[in-house]
Amino acid sequence: MSSSNQRVDGEQYSNFEFSEFLKFDEWIEEDDSSLAISDSSHNPVYRARVVGESSGTISPPERRSGEERIGREKKEAKERVAFKTKSEVEILDDGFKWRKYGKKMVKNSPNPRNYYRCSVDGCPVKKRVERDKDDPDYVITTYEGVHIHQ
DNA sequence: CGGGTTTGACCCGCGC
DNA sequence: GCGCGGGTCAAACCCG
């Protein structure tokens, strides 16, 4: 991963409290509504959240091989936070190390969808990056789960 | 050498 | 019951 953009947001995200901010259901404009689009490589202009149904529990990712994954129980829906950011590169450095584990093409969009996972052991955090179909200049980054480490 | 990235195949849930 | 879509894993390759 070679991110040409210097990381100046590491602390910015540290202050992020997903569990608290998760309160929206649609794209909401940030205070930077003016879309000033700072020169900073990335600045979340939009924030959306889609918590896993609070009432409708979704089955956890139980892989095939019904023998090693079995045992997982549905504790609570994982948090899903989506950020719409204007960026040229989809590899936004949020202060964590991500390992790409898959790429898929969306049928509704000519743009591929990249799947990332936290390299830290025990970190069940997953990241999904996709380019906006209507706004190629924008990148939608969806975070899933919470980091067990800072 | 290690870690990370890549692409295809595989799997699962749901819809029809 | 089968098909589609989306998601994940895995082997191989590349880079530092």
From TrEMBL:
Q: Where is the signal peptide?
A: none
Q: Where is the WRKY domain?
A: 87-150
Q: Where is the composition biased (Basic and acidic residues)?
A: 61-76
Name the UniProt key words of this record, in alphabetical order: DNA-binding, Nucleus, Transcription, Transcription regulation
Question: What domain of life is recorded for the organism?
Answer: Eukaryota
Q: Does the keyword Acyltransferase apply?
A: no
Q: Which SMART domains match?
A: WRKY
What GO cellular-component annotations does this UniProt entry give?
nucleus
**Primary location recorded for the protein, binned into one broad class:** nucleus
Q: Where is this region: Disordered?
A: 48-76
List where in the cell it is found.
Nucleus
Protein name, as recorded? WRKY domain-containing protein
Protein species of origin: Erythroxylum novogranatense
